[in-house]
Amino acid sequence: MTNIIVDELKPNLSADVPLDAFLRRASRIVEDEFGEKGEIPPSWFLVTASGQTHAVVMPFPATGEDPFADNVKNKGVAFIRDYFKKCDVVRYAHVAEAWMGTKPASVRASMDPNRIEIVSLIVEDRDGACCGRREIIRPASGKPYLGKLELADESPKLGYSRFGNLLYCPRPRSSDELPDDEGTVFVTNVPDAPFQIVGRRGPTGELFVGGLTMPRDGRTMLSPEELARSPVIAGEEGQKLISDVVRWLPKN
Q1: What's this model's pTM, rounded to 2 decimal places?
Q2: CA separation for the pair 46, 56 (Å, rounded)
Q3: Which of 183, 227, 187 is nearest to 205 (CA)?
Q4: Residue 210 pLDDT greater than 50, yes or no
C-alpha cells in the first residue's frame, strides 16, 4: 500500500450544490494547485455526512514489476472504498493527471502516439456522477497551464472508472469488475419492476450488475422459460438491487 497524505481542503467544498457545480469547484481547486506546483497528484476531495471536507493525496508509483501501476491502483482504490465507509463520505471528487488516447481505443492511452495529457476529474454522490477533463498545455516557453474545463457529453455508465463507484451506498457495482470466470449468473424477477437485471453474484455474496432486460409481451416478470437459465433473485434482495440501479440511472 502506497503512502497517503490527508490535508485540509481549501476552499471548502460542500454537498449542497448540484453535482456539476461541485465539479466546477473541484476544477478551480485543481487550477490553483497546478498553477502553484505545476502538477496534480492523484487526489480525492471528500465531503462527509457531517459536512467536513478534506483531501486525500495518494501517489501511484510504477515499478518494473508493475509498469502501469495497476496493482498499486487497485490496492489504493480498495483502501479508499473502506476509508469512505469509515468516514461516512457522501460526495467526492477524484482528480489526477492522465493520458487520453484516441477512440476507439486499440492500445492503452499511455501508448497511443496521438494521446494528449489531461487532468481527469470525476465527481460522484449517491444520486449520480459526472466527469470532466482539462488539457495540460505545455508551451515551448513559459509555464504549463490547464485548458478550459470540458464536461463529458453523457452521464457515466456503471463501471465507468476504477476511481468511480466508491461510495458506501452501496451503489450497484458492475460485473465488469469481476474476472470473467468468477461469480454465479443470476436474474431478478420482481413484480411490477421497470426492468429486470441480469448479473453475477460474487464470491462474497455481493451482487454485480451485468445488464437490464425487459420481459416480453408487456409483462413485468420473466416467464418460466426465461427463468430456467439462471438462479433467480426475488423478494427484498431483488427489490433493493433494482431500486439501487433506478437511483443510478440518469434522470430525464
Answers
A1: 0.66
A2: 8
A3: 183
A4: yes
